[in-house]
Amino acid sequence: MKGWVRVQVGERVVYGQRDDQGYVQVWSDAPWAEGLPTDVWFSPEHYRLLAPTSPSKIIAVGRNYREHAAEMQAPVPAEPVIFLKPPTSTLAPGASIRYPRISQRVDYEGELAVVIGQQARDLTPEQAVSAIWGYTIANDVTARDLQKRDGQWTRSKGFDTFCPLGPQIVQELGAEARLETRLNGELRQVAKPLQDMVFPPPFLVSFVSQVMTLLPGDVILTGTPAGIGPMQPGDEVSVTITGIGTLTNRVELANEGTFA
């Protein structure tokens, strides 16, 4: 399954295009930053996958699926409800989500993520189509008890490791693309994001661009479908989207003496 990746080889971090066998052709820069292909290739055993972009900001959308709004006992919003996750919450495929010791419930939320390809401000939905460089997978990890306690979402969704991204970015996604989230192999979430979400990606990009300038490499999480639930240390959560791949991360308890 071909796609764009960001990998680490020794101390070097590079962007590249990965082929169906897992070999990565290195590019001179990110593809949305006018990078060009080089003649350098890395085989799978010589690199480590990172999150496929290093965003200046991560904007997330709440309650963008009707059934998820219902399970949260909340109304479907009249306009997108947006919030920020810090770039420091980004986590690579295969890395461990750290379960904060101050939380009693940490949930998975599988999501389709949009990657921005150009500076974007005050766009219409029609203009926003060209600002979308591609799509990847996200897990909007949430400390649910802290979310309820705080009454707002910054702390509960902002811990380090609370935004796994990957494994790659693709530029095209079929309308029938299916999202599935599994916890320890058990199916928990199912949706067709491009059909089931309330506000589609171009509308979300347009809406956010009315508030803040989007920069190349920024990420918009488009919301999670129904079926969210708690994870425990030792669990494994996988989010699969047709045409992109599978994002898998394990959960581990944060080190003693730290919040996260």
Throw out a few tags for this protein.
5-stranded antiparallel beta sheet; globular; 6 helices; mainly beta; 260 residues; 7-stranded mixed beta sheet; Fumarylacetoacetate hydrolase, domain 2; 20 strands; 39% strand
Q: Which strand-content bin applies to the residues?
A: 35-45%
Strand order of the largest sheet: 7-6-17-11-12-14-8
Oligomer: single chain
Order of helices and strands: EEEEEEHEEEEEHEEHHEEEHHEEEE
- Count of spatially separate domains: 2
Indicate the mean pLDDT.
96
- CATH class category label of the largest domain: Alpha Beta
Query: What is the radius of gyration?
Result: 17 Å
- The assigned CATH architecture of the largest domain is Alpha-Beta Complex
Structural class: mainly beta
* The CATH fourth-level homologous superfamily of the largest domain: Fumarylacetoacetase-like, C-terminal domain
Tally the beta strands.
20
The helix tally amounts to 6
Report the uncertain regions.
Answer: none
Structure description:
The structure is a single chain. The radius of gyration is 17 Å and the shape is globular. The chain is built from six helices and 20 strands. A hairpin with a 5-residue loop joins β2 and β3. α2 packs across α6. The strands form four sheets. A seven-stranded mixed sheet has the order 7-6-17-11-12-14-8. Strands 4-3-2-1-5 form a five-stranded antiparallel sheet, with no helix packed on it. The model has no long low-confidence stretch (mean pLDDT 96). The chain is mainly β. The chain folds into two domains: 3-49; 58-253, Fumarylacetoacetate hydrolase, domain 2, CATH 3.90.850.
